[in-house]
Amino acid sequence: MLSKSQAKVFFLVATLGFSGVFLALTFDTMRQIPEQTNSAEISESALRGRHIWDRKNCMGCHTILGEGAYYAPELTRAVERRGEEWLRIFLRDPEAMYPGRRRMIQYNFTEDEITDVIAFLEWIGNIDANGFPFDPDMAPTAAIAAAGAEAPEVLQAAPTYYRNVCQSCHAVEGFGGNTGPALDGVATRFNEAELHQWLADPQAVRPGTTMPNLNLAEDVRTELVTWLLTLD
């Protein structure tokens, strides 16, 4: 058993020691904040995007870095998951990507405002959040490959539009999204005319489908169909 003087010394030494540890950890955390938050890369566009985020109360539905309402999707890695072009189409018209299902308000953003919002989301996605948000343990087998993974050879020949937009929903050889069906072997299930009809107006082919009408230009649609016919 400690005497009163020994207990006092123990208390003082322990208090001072742990206080020193706390201060050292605080200093180390503060030292790493600028690099981890990517603060040097905050552009004027990203700042304007943050103001739009606050003004439209986006956090009333969405979350970023785990903070928000948890009603709509978490957006910390939105640009990584979906890509800039997909987000641009969605922000122009939320209904376009999820016909008949999406509840996001149509804000009628200008093109400049859309650019600013995406710049903000891109900056958020580059923050070192120690891996957050984590991929679920039971993630579907067809998922967008991790950053830095090499795409299969067939995707290296894919049209730019496919890589920028379609790939966020569809997968080929396990590389891509899982919102829509995988496209492996699609050329054995549809002919050229059917693929053109499907891409021109999905609702006309299959009413109620969740495939959006992207209002593709004829040359873009032709390029996509030509490539899809190689997936046999």
CATH hierarchy class name of the largest domain:
Mainly Alpha
Terminus-to-terminus distance: 81 Å
So how many helices?
11
CATH architecture of the largest domain: Orthogonal Bundle
Explain what this protein looks like in three dimensions.
With 232 residues, the chain is mostly helical. It folds into 3 domains: 30 residues; 85 residues, Cytochrome Bc1 Complex, Chain D, domain 2 (Orthogonal Bundle), CATH 1.10.760; 76 residues, Orthogonal Bundle (Cytochrome Bc1 Complex, Chain D, domain 2), CATH 1.10.760. Helix content is 48%, strand content 3%. The chain is built from 11 helices and 4 strands. It has a two-stranded antiparallel sheet with strand order 1-2. A two-stranded antiparallel sheet has the order 3-4. Strand 3 and strand 4 form a beta hairpin. The longest helix has 33 residues. The termini are far apart.
